[in-house]
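Why this split exists: single-chain examples teach little about how molecules sit against one another. For that reason, every record in the complexes split bundles all components of an assembly together and asks for one structure covering all of them. Below is a record exactly as it appears in the raw files.
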Amino acid sequence: MSIQPLLEVKNLETTFRTKAGPVRAVNNVSYDIHKGQTLGIVGESGCGKSVTSYSLMRLIEHPGRVTGGQVLLNGRDILKLSEGAMEEVRGGEMAMIFQEPMTALNPVLTIGFQMDEQIMKHKKCSPKESKERAIEMLRLVGIPSPEERYNSYPHQLSGGMRQRAMIAMALSCDPTFLIADEPTTALDVTIQAQILELIQNLQEKLNMTVQFITHDLGVISEISDRVMVMYGGQTCEQADTSELFLNPSHPYTAALIASRPKFGERVQRLTTIEGSVPAPFELPKGCPFVNRCSRVKSECAGTKPPLIEIRPGHKVACFNPL
Amino acid sequence: MDNIILEAKNIKKHFPIKKGLLLREVASVKAVDDVSLVVHKGETLGLVGESGCGKSTLGRTLIRLYEPTAGEINFDGQNFLKLKGEDLRKKRKNMQMIFQDPYASLDPRMTVGQIIRQPMDIHNVGSATERDQRVLELIELVGLRKAHVNRYPHEFSGGQRQRISIARAIALNPELIICDEPVSALDVSIQAQILNLLKDLQEKLSLTYVFISHDLSVIEHTCDRIAVMYLGKIVEIASRDELFKNPQHPYTQALIGAIPRVGQGKKKMKKSLGGEVPSPINPPSGCTFHPRCPYKMDICSQKVPVLEGSGTHKKSCWLEKAPQV
């Protein structure tokens, strides 16, 4: 596509300073998302998918720091913005839904107070207008009797309702770009289905661009247009969703798909990936997957494989792709 | 049938809620409410449901980690609830449990060797050298290395810790193991390793599993028979093939419909089941699923349906035949 993507991430690098030396949690990650599209980022714990999102929101805290790269939102590099200017963007133009609504919401403030705080800052409106807006948003995400819930504290809501409140809050200032960080991981399947349906409907209605992070291959395959697979802080593979699941090219992607019990498909034994995810400070020098890979070649240990486009729109970082 | 290892009849587990100065019982949480089931030797029986449906409580009640409020449990043909003291301890050797969180279920101050040896110490099995020998055998059996025996749990990853708890569970050669969400806390690539290990051990040691999970894909992969629970009751029980090809209860259908399928590409989400699981303190009248059920009839809110059906496929629902989806 020739039109400019809404979000362009170029060579993003986030480093944490630890006693054991600097840990590069996100290492040279690049991707872009076009307007109205959903990019799914999938990977196991510690692969850097959440740190990538926090880096975009500039919410990385000491001892971590974004050490390189660009994040262009509508052509503007938000990593270069002053903290004050970033506060305008965060919660306004771009918003985030966090994984655990119980820890993301402030337990001693009402839902309404927390929503007003954000709406009044970004919409520059009166408390009365803000309250109307907040209640309208709570209604939009399907919370029953929103006027009462406006005065509720987070602990008075169930898990699914809390997550809805989070979504209402994130969407209250009409963001063009939404980051959803494992928004359904803590929820039951039937509630998960409700929340996914809600995010999809709102995305359509508001023409939002979404970055959706999860470790669940099933969820990712149903909700995203494009998928990025991460491992050890790096991108393994990027492709359109159906292409990725039909023709996975990186051995890690293929193994990940094969190791998941697939509904309606009976196998005696599951394919496994031997070993476990390496700790971030003991990542191998070359490809991060080298120690667990079944297709390892001599060059894999020494050099990092570059991300190469092997088919139109299908990029893979591997010296010996499938 | 003589191949029944465990039979539970009308099991109830209610947790009292006490309030006031005199701690009078004001209400109770009906975590498990009138459940009957049998477990056959060598099979894997799956218990599936959403959080709060009572599947874990049922698992724990079956081996008397919780004392049931009412009901009867027969283990190997003996009334398990009547056993006391030494007899109970002996019987307990035959049943073990694997817990969900491998970080919480292993004592951080004990070495791997001590953890795996502890059941043998408690039950006084063999001599000291035999026990140490057995620990090493078990460590290899679950895919760890002998060198790991003197290490502490914090030195291991989640998957390896789950292997340690599996070694501990099989140390006494039990017949029945309750696996309570054994892979839920693990990464996808590690889940497959543990599921394969459980399957291998079942074949090698002819184990019987009661497998508790909220993940239907995992349940479908692992289990021979499946019981679906909702609000403390079994709403449907059938063999794996029957349940997934021909689900009869609207709740089972909704659960199956809500599973995200891998590799089918982006799609419009179907209209999903509305509402949430009601409180087990004050469950709805009649069929407890009726407030969320798309096929609700008048009778549903008035009378409690009974779990019945032809042969091995049973459901508790007033519908003659559930509409196919």
